[in-house]
# Entry
Amino acid sequence: MSKPHILQVGPYPEWDQAPLDAAFVAHRYFEAADKATFLAEVGPQVRGIATRGELGANAAMIAACPQLEVISVYGVGYDAVDLEACRARGIRVTNTPDVLTNDVADLGVAMMLMQSRGMLGAESWVRDGSWATKGLYPLKRRVWGRRAGVLGLGRIGYEVAKRLAGFDMQIAYSDVSPKDYAAGWDFVADPVALAARSDFLFVTLAASAATRHIVGKEVIAALGPEGMLINISRASNIDEGALLDALETGALGSAALDVFEGEPKLNPRFLSLPNVLLQPHHASGTVETRKAMGQLVRDNLSAHFEGRPLPTPVL
Ligand code: 8YV
# Structure
C-alpha cells in the first residue's frame, strides 16, 4: 500500500520525525517559505494533518486539503483546530490526553513554589554575590497550608489538586458541576468566589470559545494583591490586558505563566514586570511525555488509515 500523504504543521523531535517519515509522506508546512503556494501544491494529496496543540489547523488549511480525513494533534488541547470546519466535512480529530497530565501538573506546582519562594531571585542572589555583600535574602511567602483554587478539575486540575493536598493546602475548585472524585475539596461554582477564597489560583481549563477570558478583571481583582495566578492551560482563558494592568498596579500580587497570547512572541509589558514568572509553554516538555505524545500522534494516524478504531478521538 502506498504511504498516505500528510501535512506536518510544526517540527517534532528527531525520534518522532524518523518513524513519521517511514509511515507517511510528510509535507513539512513549517519549512515552506511561501505557505499559500505550498498548500496549493500539496493540499490536494493530503489525507491527514499532524499538528501541535498550539498550532492546530485553521479553516484555510483545512479548506486547502479537499481529501482530508483526519487531524492528529500533538497535545491535549485542540482549541486551535477549527472544529466547525471538521464537523462540516466529517474530518476526525485526535489529541494526546493522559500521557502528559502528570508532567503538566508537576510544572504548575513547581511554578507556584518557585514564584512564592522567590527561587529565581534567590539564585541570582547567590550568583551575583549579593549573599556575601548584602546578607540574607528577603523573606518570601509560604505555600504549605495556604488556600488553593483550581479552575477546571479535569485530568490536569485533579492532578494539580492531588499534589497540593500533599502540601496540606486548603483546596477548592470550580467546574461545571461538583466532581465525585473530589472528596474533601470544596466546590465553588463561581470563579470570582473561588478566586476570593484563594491565595493561589490555578487555571487548568480546556480552552474553548465558552471559557475565553473566564479569568477577567473580576476574578483577578478577587484574587487580589496577595494572590498568585498560575496558568498552565491556554492564554485565551485569561484576559491578558486585565492581567497586565493588575500586575503593574499591584492589584494582583503575582503570576506564573506557561502560555501567552501570540506566543512565542509575548506582550513586552510582561518582560519588565518583577512579579511574574515566565515559562516557554513547556509544561508537557519532558523526554518521557513528548515520546509518548509523538507515539500517540502516529498511532492515531495509523489506526485511521488502517481502518482501526482511533485510540484517542475528540471528534
Ligand atoms: C504542548 C499543549 O506544549 O497539550 C497541549 O495542549 O499545548 C502542549 O502539551 C504542545 O502541543 C507541543 O507542541
In short: The pocket of 2-keto-D-gluconic acid is lined by residues 52-54, 74-77, 100, 281, 284 (CB under 6 Å).
